[in-house]
Amino acid sequence: xxxxxxxxxxxxxxxxxxxxxxxxxxxxxxxxxxxxxxxxxxxxxxxxxxxxxxxxxxxxxxxxxxxxxxxxxxxxxxxxxxxxxxxxxxxxxxxxxxxxxxxxxxxxxxxxxxxxxxxxxxxxxxxxxxxxxxxxxxxxxxxxxxxxxxxxxxxxxxxxxxxxxxxxxxxxxxxxxxxxxxxxxxxxxxxxxxxxxxxxxxxxxxxxxxxxxxxxxxxxxxxxxxxxxxxxxxxxxxxxxxxxxxxxxxxxxxxxxxxxxxxxxxxxxxxxxxxxxxxxxxxxxxxxxxxxxxxxxxxxxxxxxxxxxxxxxxxxxxxxxxxxxxxxxxxxxxxxxxxxxxxxxxxxxxxxxxxxxxxxxxxxxxxxxxxxxxxxxxxxxxxxxxxxxxxxxxxxxxxxxxxxxxxxxxxxxxxxxxxxxxxxxxxxxxxxxxxxxxxxxxxxxxxxxxxxxxxxxxxxxxxxxxxxxxxxxxxxxxxxxxxxxxxxxxxxxxxxxxxxxxxxxxxxxxxxxxxxxxxxxxxxxxxxxxxxxxxxxxxxxxxxxxxxxxxxxxxxxxxxxxxxxxxxxxxxxxxxxxxxxxxxxxxxxxxxxxxxxxxxxxxxxxxxxxxxxxxxxxxxxxxxxxxxxxxxxxxxxxxxxxxxxxxxxxxxxxxxxxxxxxxxxxx
Length: 667
Description:
By secondary structure, this protein is mainly alpha-helical. It is built from 39 helices and no strands. The protein has helices at residues 22-33, 40-48, 52-66, 70-77, 80-90, 93-105, 112-121, 124-138, 142-149, 152-162, 174-187, 196-205, 208-222, 226-233, 236-264, 271-281, 286-297, 301-308, 311-321, 334-344, 365-376, 383-391, 395-409, 413-420, 423-433, 436-448, 455-464, 467-481, 485-492, 495-505, 516-527, 534-545, 550-564, 568-575, 578-606, 613-623, 628-639, 643-650, 653-663. The longest helix is centred in the middle third of the chain and has 29 residues, at 236-264. The chain is elongated, with a radius of gyration of 31 Å.
């Protein structure tokens, strides 16, 4: 069975048995089957307490010790559903899938539901292992056998899925999302008849992350979910297969929760389906399936199995389920789940980040330098030319223009710009002309100089920059002001707020993925602090929020919800106050969805009487080449008006022109 990637969560219900001894297990199983009758309790206890990898070692030890095949002995000693379940657990996962498919296409008729379930839900790696196992076990080609037993578009989609070539890149191109939405719409709703090939190509090859966004955009574009279009345009087994694919794309655990519920509801139990799922998901996502099952059907998977099965068969299934979600402390509350999904499932962190300013094509620094010199020479200033050139060049290109300007005219471009333009426009244009790290360093310096401190600016910059950006800011600050950023923060702030800022300013946040066990410990750490113990609470939050990686913190936030039924942001706002609260909230919001954090800041800078031009300028400058396009999307989705409209209604003159140029368009 494929193991989770390093740092990935493990959500199976079966784990490696500690102190595992394959010889000892082989002897115990031999004893359990020796003589008259068999000790079924001992058999199920051993096999359900070992991982599949360990079971393979037991098989090998059994053959070495007794010269017999363990699976053959189990088949001989056991009968019925219990035998099928135990033998399924003893096979390597790929061979278990291969056996299920072989049975589904053997003899008269085909078990299409089995084919759909397996081929719609397996990963690329699992599919490759399945094909190899089928070849090894039956000396036949799986693709050829499926082609020989199915037909039409159903057959074509099964063959596409069998290739195991679904894209796996988590970075999504929004342009391709829009194109796929249009192609699906034109292949179905807008076409007389249906272009099934388009559905097969897109749903059979695109990555899961990409398709989730396609489904979201499809709903916005057409006013109906993709499932409704599939039901209206396709039919028969092909329709059922495509709906299963969509369900697995949206949530594989939810697909299996639904399959398990249907296998046990009503009169009779579909034992083959029940066995297949409980065996195949026990080391993958059984805990997720349990959570969804309990939330969706208002009863635990454990209790439904208990009421619907009997004997050793029941005992084995209950062991595989891993626990009863109706027991105290087990149930994952629906309200908490929804609260978490509101931001976690948006998958913003995996959407391709895009700025609005890109390197100019056919860039000519010599021509730009001359045009800027001409715009500032003589009486008056040609602000339009200055705005047009500077807002349509990348920062790297602007630095080349600065160098060329000095080489040609022996003058400093920044000095000339300062003398020719003023006010908000000057702050914006000069900010764009500075290298990003030096611009951030200057904003931090300004936030700390003079009477009072602009804590919001300190928080905004230090809570949102990457390690590489923070390190570059430290170097720029030292170079420009001959003082370390840490010393400046130490002398201008105090208490826990100072400690938080200094921790962030080190640029030593972890950069790995999530670690589920550590995430639970971290969530417990901040959940355990008694209400009212403010100092301890702030210290614990700082230790975790300022050092853990973004993917890990997302998992911490989810585990925190499970433990407390509260979002971590709610707890921070309730238990803390002042700058410490604001800093922690900024970190949490940035971790959840950084573009949305900046969209909120931009909205607040322009709402009400007056405009906070400093914040507006700082964000438009600093995010223009990173994620301003994403910020625009979040802005219009949350506030029902575009960033372009907000800027247009709240600013004026050349400052307005420059901001709109940076904004990059009207949504």
